[in-house]
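Q: DUF7344 domain-containing protein, please. Structure only.
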Amino acid sequence: MLDLTFQILSNKQRRQLLTKLLESRNDTGVCVPEEVVDEDQQLEEATLELRHRHLPLLEEAQFVEWNSSRHTVERGAKFGEIRPLLRLLTTNPHNLPGEWT
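A: Structure for DUF7344 domain-containing protein:
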């Protein structure tokens, strides 16, 4: 599971989505792709990447629950397993090389 967790965190868009979920209230989800698109990225390109690459991987790991009809993502059954690592990374960005978010 640790290898999969680091594979998931190796992508900026997935990190941004997971961080948004970490910071969101428990009963609210994150709208995708609007809330996770980088300003340098085209919306259509981001939507395709999320839908065909990132969200299936995150959902398979059970870190997220993706509602494609509502265009929302919520914390999945195993989000608690990645939460401590996300907190560590978000509270210590100055100790990390480069830009992690």
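A: Brief note, in case it's useful. The mean pLDDT is 87.
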